[in-house]
Design a protein that fits this description.
Blueprint (H helix, E strand, L loop, with lengths): L1 H4 L8 E6 L7 E5 L7 H12 L6 H20 L22 E4 L8 E4 L34 H17 L6 H16 L4 H16 L12 H6 L3 H9 L17 H10 L10 H21 L3 E3 L5 E3 L1
Subcellular location: Preautophagosomal structure membrane
Enzyme class: transferase
GO molecular function: ATP binding; protein serine/threonine kinase activity
Length: about 300
């Protein structure tokens, strides 16, 4: 699948492969070198190098733009491809650790490369593991296990949410309860069939975990101001997993970035933006937002979704 995808923009390039013996079909792939590691590593690097706790908006726009270009190629093929001439590719496992980063002109403008196509397939793909769902639980869309190309768009929205709030839109507290129950039951049996059943049950339970989308255009003070005093106390003293989606700093992103993130995180697939919509609508807006940020201008968005300078 990676061989088919490698001609696309912002997709890691395969340079060659080597057959591993004696395991039939087991190969080592040689990929282009991305010296900044994955996006998880790069996020930490930006924090350290710039002595900041948040991810700058300019960087988030660059990530969003490049991932959207990669998805547009996977889902619709090269430019000018006729409908029906391209069999769409669905990545199925987009997350920070599967996005590689190579140096760009500045720290805010790196090259983004979508990687790890081990779970990729076509929209009617049935995963060979027999699991009802594939991918990483907290990046999977609400419509699982019936995932198609719209699930990739959801995952990209999750990446943006994670960059802004340090967590994807997922109820981590409920997931921890399910995971601890699964881990305890799994440790109490050595039966392989039982372990597989427990794993399948765990994945099915994860399907029902609520998605928790939070706006990224609020600072922590603004976020807390929307809560009652009782809620505020629970927020301040709750466990770390329950605080995953609360802004951690007095920094708010633009309303236009929030709006485009939410278009990728619509609960119903039919309401969610496509990669083509992100390319035609979000990218022009994002480029104007980046230009405004680089000039130090205040900007907002008008009723037509266009950037206006303050």
């Amino acid at each position: 699948m990676l061989r088919k995808a490698r001609a696309g923009p912002n997709i890691v390039q395969i340079l060659g492969h080597k057959q591993n013996y004696p395991e039939y079909g087991d190969q080592t792939l040689f990929l282009e070198y991305c010296s900044h590691g994955d996006l998880v590593d790069y996020k930490s690097y930006v924090h350290r190098r710039n002595a900041i706790v948040y991810v700058p908006e300019e960087l988030i726009w660059h990530v969003y733009i490049q991932l959207s270009e990669a998805l547009d190629f996977l889902h619709y093929g090269p430019p000018n491809t006729e409908r029906g001439d391209w069999r769409p590719i669905v990545h199925f496992d987009i997350k920070g650790s599967n996005i590689l980063v190579a140096p760009g002109p500045t720290d805010m403008t790196p090259q983004i490369k979508l990687a790890d196509f081990s779970r990729s397939g076509t929209p009617d793909h049935t995963h060979p593991s027999g699991m009802t769902i594939v991918g990483t639980e907290d990046y999977l869309p609400p419509e699982q296990p019936h995932i198609n190309h719209k699930g990739d768009v959801w995952a990209v929205g999750c990446v943006i949410h994670w960059l802004a709030l340090n967590a994807p839109p997922y109820n981590h507290r409920e997931h921890q309860i399910i995971f601890q129950r699964y881990r305890k039951a799994s440790s109490e049996t050595q039966n392989a069939e039982m372990k597989l059943k427990l794993r399948e049950d765990y994945r099915r339970e994860c399907e029902g975990i609520p998605r928790v989308m939070h706006p990224i255009d609020l600072s922590i003070e603004e976020w807390l101001a929307t809560k009652s005093k009782d809620q505020e106390q629970r927020v301040r003293w709750h466990s770390d997993s329950a605080k995953k989606h609360i802004p951690r700093w007095s920094y708010a992103y633009s309303s236009v970035l929030n709006a485009w993130m939410m278009k990728a995180l619509q609960t119903l697939p039919q309401d969610r933006a496509t990669a083509r919509r992100l390319v035609s609508g979000m990218i022009p807006v994002g480029k104007r937002a980046i230009e405004a940020i680089q000039k130090g201008s205040v900007f907002d968005v008008d009723g037509d979704g266009d950037i206006i300078m303050g």
